[in-house]
# Entry
Amino acid sequence: MATNWIFQGRCWKFGDNIPTDALTPTAVMFKSPKEMAAFVLETLNPDFPKQVRPGDILVAGRNFGCSSGRALATKALQATGIGAVVAEQFSRTFYRNCLEIGLPLLEATGVHALVNDGDEVRVDIKTATLENLTTGKRLQGAPPSQFLLGMLQAGGLIPLLKSGRFPGSATR
# Structure
């Protein structure tokens, strides 16, 4: 359950059109998310699964999580301990899959140009802001709706449904 909306860590920068197949290669699809985490994005950056630390921030360009829409890709990414994922734009399926498991993410136009791999960054999901602590530059993203924040805070869709509390709903 997310109670802290602010994440700070090393920036892991990736480009445009990163498919879910790169997050979870076919050969590891039948492993647990924790086992799959050892292979996440290794074909694009072999250091990522070995050196990513809890709280680090993954930054990407446009269409992150495209292609097959593997729901396990988000679980494997979450199992790395990544704090949040920020991209210019997400594949809609990937975006919803992250929200459904409670993995914090943020869309922010201009984020790819704002950071470099290895920069120290801070992201506040609730206020939709990203700050490159290495350069001092800041960026305002698109804030998630109250409902989506509530889903993230609950830890995903299933915990939200079990709680019976639906943010932004007039019925509860």
Q: What stands out?
A: The longest helix spans residues 92-101. The chain has a mean pLDDT of 91.
